[in-house]
């Protein structure tokens, strides 16, 4: 009987990853009945554990349902946020495209965040983000309404979409120091020529003594991210010494892996400790960091997933979330997606023409996944800068993006205002003239 319950739980994970939500709900109902029969028949010692599993599943499904999109018959639609022909980001002619994302480490350790099995909500969302949509499963409902004239036409499977498989992924939930470095080294070793590695970190911050000591060692003295809660036995020292947390990932721990192209995404309340990562070896290196603070009402909702990750996963969902839009009809949702796609076209042109942007962005921009992440990051930065409730709560990047080109750009601001007007939330945003 226990084997049967485990099978149901594992099958639910598979269906979640495939976004088969109708089947997930049917399996949850069936698992509920099976657990009730199991506890009534055997009165087992693990009754509480199975009840907690069921609560985890239901909480996970509810937390991921941020915005309800309705069709013409007012039925909720399950949206996919994988990379597909309808959200393929545009690229300007002449942009370099010799780098491709091959290895991804998705690391999660947010203590209060909703999870199921060993998959937090942030990890699940990024796993979906770095996955291609199978072409035979592209929904006929989600038609291409982009007004962008330079949007590339769809190519057959053996063309642009089929040029390579999905990147190889490592999912690490609360990894110890040794586990984390084994997988970092493995991903680094497997990188082929022209391959890039992405490391995504969603974890609680671990502060260091650097600020109080006025230390210049930004590699280790300013803390990092707590990747595991595992406690190690204390070593006996004859002299009192300050011992750093063994399972804290410091910026300096990642320096050796910048010997090859490295794209780092940090979503944490101590993300700023990574803002001084140096490019020691000359290879492309980009670090995207969440804001270390968010407004109080969003802090209280962090168990439902981090806001920065939500923007990278689904920009329109995140936009609706910060504007308290909980429901939208499909037609308006498609119109909003088209406005975002139009903004992406303009950002792409700015990246191609900017004289001040660091070359690392252009080198990563040739990859479909990383291009989408860069565009969504710039969208997130502009939206939060203009939103009235997010003063001083903005994401950052290293190398910094040229402010005049990407953050104080009136064309990009207009796209944000157009989107807000479409969704009837224009009053939540500052006029650009009121920004610092």
Provide structural commentary.
This protein is an alpha/beta fold and 436 residues long. The protein has 14 helices and twelve strands. Strands 2, 5, 6, 7, 8, 9, 10 and 12 form an eight-stranded mixed beta sheet that branches. Helix 1 (2-17) runs antiparallel to helix 2 (21-42). The radius of gyration is 22 Å and the shape is globular. The relative contact order is 0.13. The model is unreliable at 140-163 (pLDDT under 50).
Describe, in short, the structure shown.
The protein contains 14 helices and 12 strands. It has 436 residues and is of the alpha/beta class.
Helical content (DSSP H or I, runs of 4+): 25-40%
Q: Please report the number of helical segments.
A: 14
Please outline the major beta sheet: 8 strands, mixed
Silhouette: globular
How do the helices and strands follow one another from N- to C-terminus? HHHEEEEHEHEHEEEEHHHEHHHEHH
Return Rg in Å: 22 Å
Number of strands: 12
* Overall pLDDT level: 86
**C-alpha end-to-end distance:** 63 Å
Strand content: 5-15%
* Class per helix and strand makeup: alpha/beta
Low-confidence stretches: 140-163
Fold topology:
Layout: H1 2-17, H2 21-42, H3 47-64, E1 68-70, E2 100-109, E3 115-116, E4 119-120, H4 121-129, E5 168-173, H5 177-190, E6 195-206, H6 210-213, E7 224-226, E8 248-249, E9 262-267, E10 285-289, H7 296-299, H8 307-313, H9 315-322, E11 327-329, H10 330-353, H11 359-365, H12 368-386, E12 396-398, H13 403-406, H14 410-422
Parallel strand pairs: 1-11, 2-5, 2-6, 6-9, 9-10
Antiparallel strand pairs: 3-4, 6-7, 7-8, 10-12
Helix pairs in contact: 1-2, 2-3, 4-8, 8-9, 8-12, 10-12, 10-14
